[in-house]
Amino acid sequence: MVKIEVNLILFAYLSLFIISVCANKYVVSNQRVTFHEAHSRCRQYGLDPAEILSESDEKEIEQALLPIKDLGTFDGFWIFASKLADKKNYYWLNSNLPLFYSAFYQGQPDNTGEKEHCLELYQASTGVFKWNDNSCDIKNRFICQRKQKINSCDDNRSAVL
User: Fold this and answer.
1) What whole-number distance in Å separates Cα of residue 155 and Cα of residue 119?
2) Which first-to-last residue range defines the signal peptide (predicted)?
């Protein structure tokens, strides 16, 4: 019972924090969870799972990630496309759109061991971000996005959970 109350208090605090962070488009989590847990958490926070549909989306997410002080090379963040539905093609989970823009690292996606069905964005080198396919069971941080873009604050477009 105490654990449920603590979780509810934590959820309420995080929800209030998210609501109070002006109108940032992207919310970057410090939590490390599986792909499916990350998707659920975005929804629990009242956000959409992050989708990168264009180069401008990619640049905005990269700008949101740059201020993270403990971001190392190969630190991954779930972006919400997978090929779990048909094992051949990636689709964004929120919009159901296929990938028509991508920024995969050279040689990716490679589906190592035929177990890599979910996409991550990671820092390939300082300030350079690329996409990779990975096992959906790996625990990564994740990126959510606001349901609509509101321009009522400054130009900062990131927040941290």
Assistant:
1) 27
2) 1-23
> What is the span of the domain harbouring residue 37?
2-160
pTM above 0.85, yes or no: no
Give the N- to C-terminal CA distance of the chain in Å, as an integer: 25
Q: Which helix (H) or strand (E) holds 27?
A: strand 26-28
Using alpha carbons, select from 70, 90, 72 the residue that is nearest to residue 82. 90
Contact in structure between 26 and 80 (CB atoms under 8 Å): no
How many domains is the chain partitioned into structurally? Answer: 1
Question: How many angstroms separate the CA atoms of 29 and 49, rounded?
Answer: 11
Neighbours of 43 (CB within 10 A): 13
**What is the CATH number for 146?**
3.10.100.10
Both tokens of residue 82? 């997978």
Structure tokens at 51: 């989708």
Task: Write down how long the chain is.
Answer: 161
Calpha distance 120→139 (Å, rounded): 11
Tokens of 9: 């208090």
At 78-131, the pLDDT tens digits run: 999 999 998 899 999 999 999 999 999 999 999 999 999 999 999 998 889 999
